[in-house]
Design goal:
CATH class of the domain at 167-397 and 553-575: Mainly Alpha
Radius of gyration: 31 Å
Number of helices: 23
Strand order of the largest sheet: 2-1-5-3-4
Structural class: mainly alpha
Shape: flat
Order of helices and strands: HHHEEHEEEHHHHHHHHHHHHHHHHHHH
CATH architecture of the domain at 167-397 and 553-575: Alpha Horseshoe
Length: about 575
């Protein structure tokens, strides 16, 4: 951390003085480097030997990049800056890897694996996992790109290789299962029995459902699903697996309309969580997008919560709970400022963090007081923070939220029961369940309008079918046989015609009876395969729902233990630097 900080400070001074170490006189005259070091020791009071060493390192890096740029233009061979995992096996964590950019990620992974003995890992550029099947240049990999090598399994010993492979497989399966489970939930339209079938609704900060287009709703549910799974892994401090899920969440969020992302704070929280994983994995130095993510988070919080959290106050009636997010934001900003060599900014942000931390640390007696009344530890902590330590106000707030939540749940159940009745009414009139649900969604629950939509659709379908029937009658087939053939072949004229020709115009009894269902039928199959698949779907849904927190403000319920550790670390580094310069 100190080495990176010193390098950032010296680079800043070199830019300010317009000093170019890769040019004469610094290339051939080492004494000139020493003279420059003496000057910068006076300005920074870093140890002389460390300053000389760092300046030489900066010179070597710059010369290498300059040479690499020339070589890239001549040969198209790029130099990638790989940041290897922090393990005892690698003396150097930052290495330069030569490669062409028209190869696939899989090919690069194979070469990295052979060179460094890594088995299961992902390559990450600007916070995104490089896709194995795609070419590097298609994924914006350029000469001098900084790429993080993220090991999927933490075990490195050969005798634990099988365990590593199991972990890798489980993580991949975990990602797939998470995606599949939330896909099932995203495709549900609320037409199932509310007493037995889980249904996810996108809500605002207070839990009120938001009207969202179907296409975006699916992407948003997938994004939130991956995010919640990632957060569950973060709580277990499994930051490597968490980051894989968070990156997937980010990709899904990016499919959503930007106006929608300004309405809910999930996207901003995700940006914080991604950078939190970067710092936990000690990979901040190679990921330039950490700063951009924090800027996005801060901007989204302002839009979502309003200036000085005015919009949040209006919606929720209190703002204290969200302070934990700003504490984490300022803490990460302080860390980045320190990495950039900006000591003053790092100190100012850290003071903000320490002030917020003091406000957010709760009196154990007040916590006990609320828990004695029967509230959970989480409810007590969230209530006290929301009300800035006022026990009586917290108690009132928790009771009020419980009451509102119960009412909201009952309204939702009633709404779904009513919707189910309307769907059944339309089904009784001869329409399929899925068509009925779709029509009701289209008409915002107006059953009469939905009936009209379905009727228009049925008339159009009937007209289309009559045209097809007329085509077959013109070929000389009997009406009943032509009608049956069309029904059996899903209204495909060519196939129905061929079927009749194969049977000399008369269909055998076994094809006519029992009458097979038409292709427009949406009723579920009762085959054993379908039953097995349905059971698997139920298991998947239940599995992913385990990671959905019971409390809607779970993301605000931070114990601040990890934050405290990082605060102490940054404060210690800043004080060490001050004492060495004093």
């Amino acid at each position: 951390m100190e080495e990176k900080h010193m390098q950032s400070v010296l680079i800043s001074l070199l830019r300010k003085d317009d000093v170019r170490l890769w040019m004469e006189p610094f290339i051939s005259d080492h004494q000139k480097i020493e003279e420059l070091a003496q000057k910068y020791v006076a300005a920074t009071e870093f140890p002389l030997e460390d300053v000389i060493s760092t300046l030489e390192s900066i010179k070597a890096d710059t010369s290498r990049k300059d040479e690499g740029n020339k070589k890239f233009k001549e040969t198209s061979v790029a130099s990638l800056e790989l940041h290897l995992p922090k393990t005892a096996e690698f003396q150097k964590r930052k290495v330069h890897f030569k490669t062409k950019l028209d190869i696939s990620t899989q090919e690069l992974k194979k070469r990295v694996s052979e060179e460094y003995g890594l088995k299961h890992f992902n390559l990450i550029l600007l916070g995104k996992i490089l896709s194995p099947g795609k070419r590097l240049d298609e994924q914006k990999v350029k000469n001098n790109s900084k790429i993080m090598v993220l090991v999927v399994s933490s075990e490195q010993e050969k005798n634990e290789m099988r365990e590593e492979e199991d972990k890798k497989r489980q993580q991949d399966e975990g990602l797939q299962r998470t995606q599949k489970g939330f896909q099932i939930l995203s495709e549900r339209d609320g037409s199932e029995d509310p007493a037995t079938t889980p249904f996810l609704e996108i809500a605002d900060q207070k839990g009120n459902p938001l009207q969202i287009p179907d296409s975006e709703r699916k992407a948003l549910i997938l994004a939130m699903g991956f995010h919640e799974k990632g957060r569950a892994l973060m709580k277990k401090r499994n930051h490597s697996a968490a980051l894989s899920h968070l990156v997937q969440a980010d990709e899904q969020f990016n499919k959503c309309n930007s106006a929608l992302l300004n309405t809910v704070d999930n996207y901003a929280v995700l940006q914080l969580d991604v950078v939190w994983c970067y710092q936990a994995l000690q990979q901040l130095d190679c990921l330039n997008d950490a700063r951009q993510r924090l800027e996005r988070a801060e901007e989204r919080f302002k839009r979502c919560y309003g200036e000085q959290q005015s919009r949040l106050q209006q919606i929720k009636g209190h703002t204290g709970g969200e302070d934990v997010l700003f504490l984490r934001l300022y803490l990460l900003q302080s860390l980045l400022a320190y990495h950039d060599g900006n000591k003053n900014q790092a100190l100012n942000k850290l003071r903000n963090v320490e002030e917020l931390y003091g406000q957010l640390c709760l009196d154990p007696d007040k916590m006990l007081q609320l828990m004695t009344v029967g509230f959970s530890e989480q409810e007590a902590r969230l209530g006290l923070r929301a009300c800035r330590g006022d026990v009586e106000a917290a108690e009132r707030l928790i009771f009020q939220r419980k009451k509102e939540k119960k009412e909201l749940k009952e309204q939702e159940r009633e709404k779904r029961r009513h919707r189910l009745q309307d769907i059944n009414t339309l089904v009784e009139l001869g329409f399929s369940k899925r068509d009925a649900a779709k029509a009701l969604h289209q008409t915002r629950g107006d059953v009469d309008k939905a009936y009209g939509v379905l009727l228009d659709g049925a008339e159009a379908q009937s007209s289309d079918r009559q045209t097809k029937l007329d085509q077959m009658l013109a070929l000389g087939f009997q009406v009943d046989m032509a009608d049956s053939a069309l029904r059996i072949m899903g209204d495909d004229v060519a196939q129905a015609t061929q079927m009749l020709l194969d049977n000399q115009g008369v269909l055998p009894p076994d094809l006519l009876s029992p009458s097979p269902p038409s292709s427009s039928s949406e009723e579920p199959s009762t085959s054993s395969d379908s039953t097995g698949s349905s059971r698997q779907d139920v298991e998947l849904v239940n599995e992913v729902l385990e990671d959905i927190p019971r409390h809607e403000e779970d993301y605000l319920d931070l114990t601040l233990d990890e934050e405290k550790e990082l605060m102490v670390q940054i404060r210690s580094s800043l004080e060490k630097q001050s004492s060495s310069s004093g």
